[in-house]
Amino acid sequence: MLGLGTSISALHDGITGVYNTTTNTKSLEFTGYSSGTSNPDTLTVDDDDLLSFTAGTNGDGVDLPFSAAFWIKRGESSGHGIFTKNLASGATSNLEYRLFYSGATLFMDISDGGKQNADIKRTRWTNNSTNWQHIVVTYTGVVSSAENMKCYVNGTKLSALGGDQSTDDDGMENQDGKLHLGNLLSDANFDFKGHLAQFIMWRNHELSQSEVNYLYAGGATHRDPTKGAQDYDGSSKIVLWLPLDADLNDDGPNGFNGTAVNSTALDSTVPF
Q: Structural domains in the chain?
């Protein structure tokens, strides 16, 4: 378990109240493909309907808002799968959502099952840093709305790039695949090399700019996302919280513990 610091009362960007702090002494390291293995390092979380952010079926556009936040340090500027919910390696179907880098561009996709342009709604942003960064991505749940996906890096909202051809408006479809960190699954060239810490997901909640600032402002003494200040609405909407410090367990309300695949392991590299 994480070490919990003293409860602190503070006012930050309009959010007031008491919060707990946590500390990380480790992060999760991914090294890509290990010797003698056919799949890259991965952390998996078993499938559960709470990790499928849709209220409908068959990609009918009845999605739920969701958000994800994490600290990341890429080992190199190339293709990296950060997270994906998909069924199996090499599968062309059963995709729900994914976040990945291709060179200097960060892509976020939501899918009604496939990975082709006709199956995906996509937003992309320029982000080429290999330093430690705090990244938040959000989805409004309204697939056809403008700016339905947002990305914040170190508290600053990025401007989305235009011109992408992946514009399917069917929304997501609840699939049976696990949640995978560090692996894109459907594309073998996107194995992640680097470190992750403090991976959090919110269900039925799109984090606001104020909430992003509140979480990022904790810095080295991370703010416990489940013990929110009185005006932080996201504290009750946590569906998964993997601190990736002392173990791979979920410190949120659902017990969705992670399982390491191949050489994925905790490492002493930390964000600060």
A: 3-267 (2.60.120.200)
